[in-house]
From TrEMBL:
Pfam families assigned: TauE
Compartments it resides in: Cell membrane
Membrane topology: Multi-pass membrane protein
Keywords, alphabetical: Cell membrane, Membrane, Transmembrane, Transmembrane helix, Transport
PANTHER family, per database record: MEMBRANE TRANSPORTER PROTEIN YFCA-RELATED, TRANSMEMBRANE PROTEIN YFCA
Sequence similarity: Belongs to the 4-toluene sulfonate uptake permease (TSUP) (TC 2.A.102) family.
Recorded superkingdom: Bacteria
Organism: Ponticoccus litoralis
Protein known as: Probable membrane transporter protein
GO cellular component term, pick one: plasma membrane
Transmembrane region(s): 40-61, 73-92, 98-121, 133-149, 179-198, 204-221, 228-247
Keyword Membrane: yes
Amino acid sequence: MLTIFVLALAGLGAGALNAIAGGGTFLTFPALVWAGVPPIMANATATFAALPGYVGSAWAYRGDIERGGKPPLAHLVGAAVVGGLAGAGLLLVTPEELFSGVVPWLLLIATAAFALGPAFVRRLAESGRTMSDPAALGLVFAVSVYGGYFNGGLGIMLLAAFGIIGMTNLHRMNGLKNLMSVVLSVVSVATYTVAGLIDWGNLLVVGLSCALGGYLGAVLARRVQNTALLRLLIIAIGLIMTALFFLRAAG
């Protein structure tokens, strides 16, 4: 019962965080590892569990997503599909021990990108430079490879990428982030399922709670004007989880 409670609570919080700004896998991935799921299987299961929440959040943001902009939505989705397949394929050939050693660094990269992204975007805007569509799609492809390989911090990485591209409307950025996360997760999950990497029992608990948290979080996020406190909270969670996984890898 304790395991079910912890996984359900982690899923609810993760769904809400993913909808608002990303970082939900910082909760579900370690919760699954704590429950005894091997790291690679925990990553695959956490990716699958986040999918219903992404769908619910993307639906809540559908009006913001449809506002248009550059690069075209179809091109963004295409880059996500190809990148997601590449990342998921890379995970399948990664030994368990190597993946466990890489996880803390991936968490650190995701947290740093989220923390430093706004300052980088401001400097980019002050310089008057704009990113061309091919460069923007290349950046989205690179983030999608990361997302296909490791779901932790995917939303954070996508938001940072959209900011670097030059997007400024936070609601549209969140909507696109959730839509792209749906696309990436579907591609990755299909690959993981064929490879037998999904823990179906724990998936049911985490997935249902993620779906509920995702919808509630999206509804709340569209009413939030000042996200500074939320940003600090996500950075703190990312740093704590990074430290814990570095300690785990060292032990």
